[in-house]
Amino acid sequence: MHPGFNAKKFPDKPAIVMAGSGKIMTHGELNTLSNQGAQLFRSLGLKPGDSIAIMLENHFLFFPIIFAAWRSGLQYTAISWRLQPSEVEYIVKDCDAKAFITSKFLEDTARNLSASLSNVSKFMLDGPSEGYESYEDAIREMSKDPIEDECQGGSMLYSSGTTGRPKGVKRQLTLNPLPYQEDDEDTGLGRALLIYGATEESIYLSPAPLYHSAPLNFVTGFLAQGCTAVILEKFDTEVALKAIQDYKVTHSQWVPTMFVRFLKIDPSIRTQYDLSSHQVAIHAAAPCPVVVKEQMIEWWGPILHEYYAGTEFNGMTIINSEEWLSHKGSVGRPLFGSVHILNEEEGQELPAGETGSVYFGGETATTFEYHNDPEKTKSAISKQGYSTLGDVGYLDEEGYLYLTDRKAFMIISGGVNIYPKETEDILVMHPKVADVAVFGVPNEEMGEEVKAVVQPENLEDAGPELEAELIAYCKDNISSVKSPKSIDFEEELPRHPTGKLYKRLLKDKYWP
Predict the structure, then answer these.
(1) Is the dihedral of CA 181, 184, 190, 193 positive or negative?
(2) How far apart are CA 15 and CA 7, in angstroms?
(3) 76 DSSP β-pair partners
(4) 138-166, pLDDT tens digit by residue?
(5) pLDDT band at 393 (very low <50, low <70, confident <90, very high)
(6) Sign of CA dihedral 421, 253, 276, 258
(7) CA–CA separation, 128 vs 377, rounded Å?
(8) Alpha-carbon distance 53 to 155, whole Å?
(9) Are 155 and 46 in contact, with CB atoms under 8 Å apart?
(10) What per-residue confidence (pLDDT) applies to 338?
């Protein structure tokens, strides 16, 4: 839905609520601010099809900027604020951004970019800085009316770069003229949003960094539907529970590492908050350990909805709690398109029960490309015209998909394929383990052996005794072949706030 329609229908209804500060932006204000942003972009000479980049924390003005770009027909790239200046500079240049917007919170990083991006218009929220103009001052001078040539833009987000330089996932901009008709059902997420029962009365909680694909697209979709979005500045288990209670949240989205942290809080805290308004808890980004999901359903009820998809949006599977309880471990069946398991060496389709590379088929399978990397795009497409996100898994007889692991993380020890996820799922539930990564390290005889790196709940526990305890714990629950031969300890694992583990940063230490 066009933000102008929401502004006319309920101008004073909260669109954005910042859970920490309590700041509220109405749909009327969201429409006005995004109009002024669009006017600013046109005044800079940006035309439909051009690109901008933003690097922001979960900021109050994040979505007015996103909607300003969207209604200007621009391609917008949201960048992780946790990256180093050289990484940010690479993305800003690679996406061909003509404007870059950041904040005072990230001033140190921003100042290291100003000299190298001399041809980019640079703006800063919460005040100006050397080389950066105040964004608030810039839009204050702009008209509050819509630009004359409104048309639909879209995002180009970058992969997390766990195996090298991140790549932009590019989809063709439609540049459809705006505004839409008021009765148009295109809410930005289409079927993917409607299946969760979202209405304009829904209240959506987003606890994750907004620059990531899922939070960005889901919040945008809920706002376009006329809903209220409650934003956490950063994830905290008790703050999240309190937000569900205080704002009467109906819908939310999570990653499995958040569930693990929820389950490890003091049991007395769980009962302090009224979660009765909570109707749908969506989760994705990584496969959820079976025991974790079982316990979350027991606590929250059968409101968990899982999906499997990527920024490429080349396909999508979904599964609700009732289906999952009879297909434990599955990420569901296709919402659109089709799922195929291929033998990677020969590209042949495998029967139910056999593990191989997961591919999506259908109309959306090849509607993306990796920006400035035709070889990576080509490598993701099979001879049948299917595309893959690089995951390994299998289908059961009913067509439910089960993910085994990432293809790049598989361990081959003595000719046996070992998928680290199974071992990680066991170890992460040990009461003394806060986080864990499992991968292969060199072994002269076997080629590789299983190594675990553990972030203990209490760093003082780290040592030979805990190592022996955890190895024994694994062997009691899974085959000794899959159990770690050794365990090292780290104060904190390099995990992205969206739940993705930078396993390469750990693994590289063990490989010459």
Answers:
(1) positive
(2) 10
(3) 52, 155
(4) 999 999 999 999 999 999 999 765 446 78
(5) very high
(6) positive
(7) 40
(8) 10
(9) no
(10) 97
- Delineate the domains of the chain, giving CATH numbers in brackets: 27-183 (3.40.50.980), 410-510 (3.30.300.30)
Residues 336, 340, 344, 348: what is their CA dihedral angle, to the nearest 10 degrees?
Answer: -140
Report the distance separating Cα 34 and Cα 70, nearest Å.
9
Q: Which residues, at least 6 apart from 451, have a Cβ–Cβ distance to it below 8 Å?
A: 438, 439, 440, 441, 484, 485, 486, 487, 488, 510
Between the alpha carbon of residue 82 and those of residues 56, 181, 278, the distances in Å are 10, 40, 31
Q: Is 41's pLDDT higher than 70?
A: yes
Sign of torsion over alpha carbons 220, 225, 230, 235: negative
Nearest to 102 by CA among 112, 110, 114: 110
Is residue 307 within 8 A of residue 401, CB to CB? The reply is no
- List C-alpha distances in Å: 25 to 40, 229, 247: 20, 10, 15
The rounded distance, in Å, linking the Cα atoms of 41 and 56 is: 18
Token couple for 128: 């100006």
Q: How far apart are CA 167 and CA 49, in angstroms?
A: 19
Instruction: State the pLDDT at residue 410.
Output: 77
